[in-house]
Amino acid sequence: MTTGNSHDRATGSESAASDLSGLCRTGGIAAFVLIVYCLATIIQVVVLGGPPTTAAEAFTLLQKNKMVGLLRLDLPTTIAMPLYYFLVLGLFAALRHTDRANAILSTALTLVGVTLFLAMPTGLSMVPLSERYAAATTEALRIQLQAAGEAILATYIWHGTGAMLGGILLQGGLVLISVVMLRSRIFSKTTAYLGVLTHGLDLAHIVVGLLLPRFGVVLMAIAGPLYPVWFLLVGRRLLQLATRNEARQCSAA
To answer: What are the residue ranges of helices labelled H in 119-188?
Structure first.
């Protein structure tokens, strides 16, 4: 009977270890995909320009070239943001023994932040308005559609209260998980300090940008190029941890 219980515990432990290795691997892959997103976004902003500032500009972009319009309305961001779910769960799996309470808290903050961010209107909401605006036959209808577009731009993923709160929770959670890294031997000090700097700057960009928009842009301009480097360091380490854990399981078997 005791032997059976010991076997069950061992099997359960191996299953849990396998699940955690899977989280590390998935988180590592998500980090590398986020590198592609970061670099593509930098190129897009340089080549195509940033988001439109008015509904009329957004409608014009979508009517001329829908794909370019959606790119400038940050559709790639909407697609990429869910990757943070996998990344932060991978980080939790790696750091759960270092500081479990703060690892849980940082994971919760990040998950809630991403969810709030994704709940905001996106550039896709502008597509039907743009089509109706192009087909409008009266000036009064155009004015109404333009007002609706301005309302979407005022509340969409970069400007709405929910998006800002989501950004604060997301960046705050990532700063906290970077602090947990500092207390561990799993990630290098370089990775940890770079995480604190990158996400701290992005957090400051959101908060300071409310009062000093231009200074907020400067902070984001500094943080932006740091993201691919941090994702590279984190993604590589998570994949190494997953491979090492799988090798241990094979040896134990």
So the answer is: 126-135, 139-155, 161-182
Listed range (1-15, 121-135, 174-188, 214-228) with the worst mean pLDDT? 1-15
CA dihedral sign of residues 239, 241, 243, 249: negative
Q: Is 16 exposed, middle or buried (0-12, 13-18, 19+ CB in 10 A)?
A: exposed
More confident residue, 117 or 9: 117
pLDDT of residue 213: 80
Give the distance from CA 168 to its chain's centroid.
Answer: 12
* Rg, C-alpha atoms of the chain: 22
- Using a 10 angstrom Cβ sphere, with 0-12 exposed, 13-18 middle and 19 or more buried, the burial of residue 137 is exposed
Please give the structure tokens belonging to residue 40: 């593509």
Cα–Cα distances in angstroms (integers) from residue 8 to residues 47, 92, 111, 196, in the given order: 58, 25, 33, 41
- 3-state class of 120 per DSSP? coil
* Residue 73 near residue 58, CB atoms below 8 Å: yes
- Any idea of the CA torsion for 35, 40, 45, 51, to the nearest 10 degrees? -90
233: confidence class by pLDDT, cuts 50, 70, 90: very high
Indicate the domain borders of the chain. Answer: 2-252
What is residue 225's three-state secondary structure?
Answer: coil
Q: What pLDDT is stored for residue 3 in this prediction?
A: 44
* Cβ proximity of 76 and 96 under 8 Å: no
pLDDT digits (tens, 9 = 90+) for 151-178: 888 777 777 778 889 999 999 999 999 9
